[in-house]
Design brief:
The model has no long low-confidence stretch (mean pLDDT 93). The chain has three domains: 148 residues, FAD/NAD(P)-binding domain (3-Layer(bba) Sandwich); 163 residues, Polyamine Oxidase, Chain A, domain 2; 98 residues, Guanine Nucleotide Dissociation Inhibitor, domain 1 (Orthogonal Bundle), CATH 1.10.405. By secondary structure, the chain is of the alpha/beta class. It has a seven-stranded mixed sheet. A five-stranded parallel sheet has the order 10-2-1-11-17, with helices on one face. Bound molecules: flavin-adenine dinucleotide. The site of flavin-adenine dinucleotide (FAD) has 38 residues, from helix 1, helix 10, strand 12, strand 16 and helix 14.
């Protein structure tokens, strides 16, 4: 069997097929595994690790398939979970979201009510929207894919401040899309599964090592001796009649599929897909600038800041269309201004080095109407299968979605091959 693409989708498919005893050839165009969840060499004169991540990659505890995949890879212990999320305003007010003993779905209620970045009318509107979301999300006659999240919030009479300072920061970072563009269904899924799903589903996992250590070249070997890894092996064209590979899984981004297998006739379907960028801002200060391990910044362009240790900080701007044409120096200046407002210690620290990484096609944009265009794992060709975060996973473009798609494609192959079908993930 052949798997094309060594991102998380292709790796997950490979792991599952190898577990079922299949011989797998995994082809990856680049010299390393991990796809978009990748590390790049650090500038040699910057102290610290030899690699930095293209951007911060985090997960939530509700990412059950991804955690299952990490266990299979033997790297589960490299993910550190945090049970506190910190919301920081431009005047430096820190609010902390944390579960307490109240029963689910009220486990976060007390900390949400204590948030100071929004007023009481806003909090009541947040509580009302969360309740309505939970009710409507599972209602069969409600189509949350037909309107944007902002349209839905307006219908629910959400206050302007709650949209700006509560809903937007969560949605933009989880979906990599503005609430005025993102489908209501995608946003609701984030809140229903992430915040309200179970007592610990909101907890955020952060890799304690560079992503390149999670998906190193030795990884494929860990899936079993039947896996052969081909790095720097760009597949130009998928031949459905390839006699060497009885089944093939295409685990590449959506914009590569039509070229690789024109006979699938996916062009029209894929026209519905647009992409959204993410910008990572790497900052090396001469000293620490904050006491928190990470913070969600509720005002301004910079949405998250992560403490990577020894004065190294990684900032994230999701849905960063405005930054695409902005010079890196201006982006760094804007981030510094925001950090100095929120964290007084940043005012006396000196920035020694910075690097801005713009991922222009970071993820697909989860817009209304897109769900029906996302294909499942099977195609019109009986031996060609699809995987990737953009396929129909029920999840936005995330590592969890990618792993789910890989497992599902592998299950579809095993079914087609007549082998035993087992549930491969929780
Ligand atoms: C900057 C950034 C930040 C992100 N942050 C988060 C986050 O915090 N949390 C989260 O869950 N998700 C995050 N994501 C999204 C996440 O990285 C992706 O959803 C996930 O990694 C996609 O995996 P994939 O396997 O579907 O696709 P990809 O990772 O794109 O893998 C596809 C692979 O196929 C290879 N390929 C393409 N064409 C060919 C060919 N012809 N032959 C052989 N190989 C080929 C590519 O080189 C690539 O390695 C982020 C993404 C970016 C870009």
């Amino acid at each position: 069997m052949k798997v094309i693409g060594g991102g998380l989708a292709g790796l997950a498919a490979t792991a599952r097929l190898a577990e079922a005893g299949a011989r797998v050839d995994l082809h990856e165009a680049r010299a390393f595994l991990g796809g978009r969840a990748a590390s790049i060499p650090a500038d040699p004169h910057v102290p610290g690790s030899a690699h930095i991540d293209n951007c911060q990659h985090v997960l939530l505890r509700c990412c059950t398939s991804l955690l299952d995949f990490y266990r299979r890879c033997g790297v589960r212990d490299k993910i550190v979970f945090h049970d506190e999320l910190h919301l920081v305003t431009s005047d430096g007010t820190v609010d902390t979201i944390r579960a307490d003993a109240l029963p689910v779905p009220f486990h976060l209620l007390r900390s949400l009510l204590a948030v100071r970045s929004i007023g009481w009318a806003d909090k009541l509107s947040v509580a009302r929207c969360l309740r309505a979301m939970k009710r409507q999300h599972s209602r069969p006659n409600f189509d949350p894919d037909s309107l944007t999240f902002t349209q839905w919030l307006r219908r629910m009479r959400a206050t302007n401040r709650s949209i700006r300072r509560f809903w937007r920061p969560f949605v933009v970072s989880a979906l990599n899309e503005e609430p005025e563009i993102a489908a209501a269904g995608a946003a609701m899924q984030v809140f229903c599964e992430g915040l309200l799903g179970s007592r610990d589903s909101y907890q955020m996992g952060v890799p304690a090592v560079p992503l390149s250590d999670l998906y190193d070249a030795a990884l494929a070997g860990r899936f079993g001796p039947s896996v052969r890894l081909h790095l720097r092996s760009r597949v130009r064209r998928v031949d459905a009649l390839d006699h060497e590979a009885d089944y093939q899984i295409l685990a590449v981004p959506f914009d590569r599929v039509a070229k690789l297998v024109p006979e699938l006739r996916l062009q029209r379907r894929l026209q519905g897909f647009e992409t959204s960028p993410i910008t990572g801002i790497h900052l090396w200060f001469d000293r620490p600038i904050m006491d928190l391990p990470h913070a969600m910044l509720v005002d301004g362009d910079l949405q998250w800041i992560f403490d990577k240790g020894e004065g190294y900080y990684l900032g994230v701007i999701s849905a960063s269309r405005a930054q695409l044409t902005q010079p890196s120096g201006d982006i760094v200046e804007g981030a510094l201004r925001q950090l100095e407002e929120a964290f007084p210690r940043a005012r006396t620290a000196s920035l020694e080095h910075s690097r801005v990484i713009k991922e222009t096609r970071a993820t697909f944009s989860a817009q209304p109407g897109l769900e029906r265009h996302r294909p499942g794992p099977t195609t019109a060709l009986p031996n060609v299968f699809l995987a990737g975060d953009w396929t129909a996973t029920g999840w936005p473009a995330t590592m969890e979605g990618a792993v789910r798609s890989g497992y599902r494609a592998a299950e579809a192959v095993l079914t087609a091959a007549g082998g035993p079908r087992t549930r491969s993930a929780p």
